């Protein structure tokens, strides 16, 4: 194996209790947790304290076993164990790219799979998490967009991706050994840029992000969480009010004609409606800019004229333009713009006063880069179809 070859590792996991078993405490808001504890007989007067204690065990210390919650009475721990579990989704496999990017294949209830990607950088570590299995939208340059929506993830499955990444990175503090806050964090930032459209799963995403931001747990600042949306206009104001995180918009085109083709949700809410909603995003200030994501597609949206139109359109919005070199996937209908074209585009945007970083593709060798995610089960199904076509058989004749 060459030094730069990606590493694949299958992870053996202990089977967890099925969803019809005891209730999972992960993913409940503080209020839901309090009510749940009262529901099994916790006296109302104690419920707030018990909620705090259990919350810290789960989200600060990363404990999954009630018997380790040592500041709770033995009988109470037994009561909890009889009624509840603390469960995160199962990690089925882990691929490590030559550049250090880790892609986790995560199995959720029902046997579905999503992907979560950890991207280490010198000054931060970003976890890219999924919010849906597949996507209802069909952006023509996105691999996830070729997969139908299977279902929304629950809050437990969303925050669970953060927890299992911390498991893998060994980033939970050890009880009794400091607070776990020494040194920079391996997992310091979250981007909701995996599979799915987060604003079509608003409540679960909101609850999961509020758990991740809670100061007595995972404790990530709202400024270290970025939600990326294709432009679900009616949910944008709510994102500011109920989550308060940073916002990224999959903009990708400067005319409605082109955006209709690339990001079909544009037919519902066009560029003008989207920009109006963004201008009203209440947290806007120069230090909290909106990120405009712009995928660079050769001869589609990458001309100097596009760059000039883009800066005109977003005038007045504190913004940063993130240029994403297109990541190819098997059968993708576009090509990545030439590097010199991307730089010329970036230059125009930069001269107009906007930061215009070009996103370095990460984890391409393990299909972990933006827009390459797609569940392995779906991929397997596709390849069977392809095999069938090649040998002239109907898929019914092939083993499933
Ligand atoms: N559904 C959300 C978040 C997931 S996609 C959204 O659309 O914003 C995260 C980012 O990757 C989006 O900006 C998306 O447009 C971009 N993307 C999708 N496919 C891509 C590809 N093949 N190459 C580069 N970027 C891609
Ligand atoms: Fe869905 Fe985002 Fe992909 Fe569009 S770019 S298909 S909204 S995941």
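^ structure tokens above, recovered residues below v
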């Amino acid at each position: 194996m060459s030094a730069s070859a990606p590493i694949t590792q299958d992870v053996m996991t202990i089977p967890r209790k099925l969803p019809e078993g005891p209730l999972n405490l992960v993913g409940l808001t503080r209020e839901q947790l309090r009510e749940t504890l009262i529901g099994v007989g916790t006296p109302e007067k104690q419920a707030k304290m018990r909620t705090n204690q259990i919350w810290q065990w789960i989200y600060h210390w990363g404990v999954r076993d009630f018997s380790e919650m040592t500041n709770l009475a033995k009988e109470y721990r037994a009561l909890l164990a009889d009624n509840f579990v603390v469960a995160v989704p199962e990690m089925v496999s882990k691929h490590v790219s030559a550049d250090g990017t880790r892609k986790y294949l995560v199995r959720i209830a029902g046997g579905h799979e999503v992907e979560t990607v950890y991207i280490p950088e010198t000054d931060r570590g970003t976890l890219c998490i999924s919010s849906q299995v597949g996507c209802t939208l069909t952006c023509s340059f996105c691999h996830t967009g070729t997969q139908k929506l299977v279902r929304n993830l629950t809050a437990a499955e969303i925050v669970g991706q953060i927890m299992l990444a911390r498991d893998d990175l060994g980033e939970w503090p050890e009880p009794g050994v400091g607070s776990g806050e020494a040194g920079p964090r391996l997992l310091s930032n979250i981007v909701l840029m995996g599979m799915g459209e987060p604003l079509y799963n608003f409540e679960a995403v909101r609850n999961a992000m509020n758990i991740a931001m809670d100061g007595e747990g995972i404790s990530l600042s709202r400024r270290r969480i970025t939600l990326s949306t294709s432009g679900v206009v009616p949910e944008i104001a709510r994102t500011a009010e109920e989550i308060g995180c940073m916002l990224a918009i999959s903009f990708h085109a400067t005319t409605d004609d082109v955006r209709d083709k690339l990001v079909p949700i544009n037919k519902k809410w066009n560029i003008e409606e989207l920009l109006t909603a963004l201008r009203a995003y209440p947290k806007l200030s120069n230090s909290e800019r909106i990120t405009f994501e712009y995928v660079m597609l050769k001869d589609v949206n990458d001309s100097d004229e596009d760059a000039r139109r883009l800066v005109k359109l977003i005038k007045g919005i504190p913004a940063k333009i993130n240029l994403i070199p297109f990541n190819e996937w098997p059968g993708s209908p576009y090509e990545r713009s030439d590097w010199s074209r991307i730089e010329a585009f970036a230059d125009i945007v930069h001269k107009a006063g906007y930061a215009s970083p070009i996103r370095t593709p990460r984890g391409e060798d393990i299909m972990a880069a933006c827009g390459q995610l797609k569940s392995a089960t779906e991929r397997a199904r596709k390849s069977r179809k392809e095999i069938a076509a090649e040998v002239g058989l109907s898929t019914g004749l092939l083993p499933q």
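The chain is about 30% helix and 15% strand.
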